[in-house]
Amino acid sequence: MxxxxxxxxxxxxxxxxxxxxxxxxxxxxxALDSRYQAxxxxxxxxxxxxxLADDFVLVLGDGRTFDREALLAEARRASRxxxxxxxxxxxxxxxxxxxxxTAKLWLKGSTREGERFDYMLWFSDTWVRQQxxxxxxxxxASLRLPPSPAPAERLTxxxxxxxxxxxxxALRARASVSTAWPSRVMHTSSSMRMPMPRHRASTLVSSGEx
Length: 210
What we know:
Blueprint: H1 6-14, H2 23-41, H3 45-51, E1 52-59, E2 65-67, H4 68-77, E3 80-95, E4 98-111, E5 116-130, E6 133-141, H5 157-191, H6 198-207
Parallel strand pairs: 1-6
Antiparallel strand pairs: 1-2, 3-4, 4-5, 5-6
Helix pairs in contact: 2-3, 3-4
């Protein structure tokens, strides 16, 4: 009769299908998290209920808290209709029978009252492996993130050509002003010369100064 190693025996008695803390466990939790987010988007209260722990708590960034029944009631009432309920970035870390999912979430849609919303936030979801599988036990969400600035317009070849033409025109105009300036100064000086009095001119001629 073969003798089982202590770890193998413990693993079998626990009924585990995936070793705790393994990459496979992280992949399993990531799949469950995606399934939960899809259920929220569809207001699928039944799927949400199968994944939420009985003592689940959600803590929002403004300090409000919601339990399992409150979330399920919101879904059944379809308090929100989602166009986007998408994770833009996600990281899953596993320690034994506990996993934490951290992700950036984009939410867009409208409320039952017709109010539009479109924002992003960060959240951390804690999953715990129980006898019947992984359960979502704690959710923590940040405040809404400030809107991202609009991306700067990319300069095309046409834009570069227009900028170059503007600079060239400005330089030509400046050169034209610099070239014409001495002649205008001379012309102005000549036009501003005061006429010599007639008696002074006669005096100069008689004395031989002119």
